[in-house]
Write a structure and sequence with these properties.
Elements: H1 3-27, E1 36-37, H2 39-46, H3 50-62, E2 66-69, E3 73-76, H4 81-102, H5 108-128, H6 134-150, H7 155-167, H8 180-195, H9 199-222
Antiparallel strand pairs: 1-3, 2-3
Helix pairs in contact: 1-3, 4-6, 4-7, 4-9, 5-6, 5-8, 6-7, 8-9
């Protein structure tokens, strides 16, 4: 009696997995704004059949990440600047609170490891005056923010922060290498405040960081 339900669950799980992979490709910029999606090419790239791919595309369309071009095609919808700023504004509300709450809960050894890596990257960026490895920069950025969010004691808030940060990945350090050393120092300031046990200082350091991110993106957009 339960066999059909199990059989039905597998395609749904696959569709959600394809949805997640496509979402990552959109947020990372691998699928660019305005790009028309071809089912055959995507199915080959993801090594999946058309059925779960179509289900995933419909989910992304319903979420507003894709839009119709005519009757047959879907394209990646461009995130507008106001939408992007709205996401940052919500991050500005949540992430300072996460930084405040994580004091006394976060793994200090892990933060010390991240701080050491950041200090090494500050030294490297001073010599190269650019981001030598954008992937490494993105990885440590995600690691620090995720560590703080995960230690906030509020799983719902942590998940919201992770989702919002994924949506702002398109403006990474690879596109704004001049911000690299400043971002590393801002992260070090956040970690130092947490290590000192001062939740308010940690929240203030996180607020300054997000405000600086917003300001730098506005400057970047003004030059495009």
């Amino acid at each position: 009696m339960n066999r059909p339900a199990l059989d039905d669950a597998a395609p749904r799980r696959l569709a959600y997995e394809v949805h997640r992979r496509l979402e990552d490709m959109i947020f990372s910029g691998k699928l660019r704004s305005g790009e028309v999606l071809t089912e055959r090419r995507l199915a080959e790239a993801l090594d999946v059949s058309r059925t779960p791919l179509r289900d995933a595309l419909l989910m992304l369309e319903s979420e507003g990440l894709l839009k119709r071009r005519g009757a047959r095609y879907l394209e990646v919808r461009q995130m507008t600047v106001p939408e992007y700023m709205q996401v940052l504004n919500i991050r500005r509300l949540l992430e300072p609170e996460a930084a405040r709450l994580c004091v006394g809960r976060v793994d200090l050894a892990r933060l010390a490891e991240l701080r050491g890596r950041l200090e090494a990257m500050v030294a490297a960026s001073a010599e190269a005056r650019s981001v030598e490895d954008p992937d490494a920069s993105a990885e440590i950025d995600a690691a620090m923010h995720d560590e703080i969010a995960g230690a906030s004691g509020n799983p719902l808030m942590a998940n919201l922060i992770r989702d919002l940060r994924r949506r702002t990945r398109i403006f990474d350090l690879g596109r704004m290498p001049d911000r690299a050393a400043s971002v590393y120092r801002e992260h070090i300031d956040i970690i130092a405040a947490i290590e000192s046990g001062d939740g308010n200082a940690a929240a203030e350091a996180m607020t300054r960081h997000i405000d600086n991110v917003k300001a730098s993106i506005i400057r970047h957009l003004s030059t495009i």
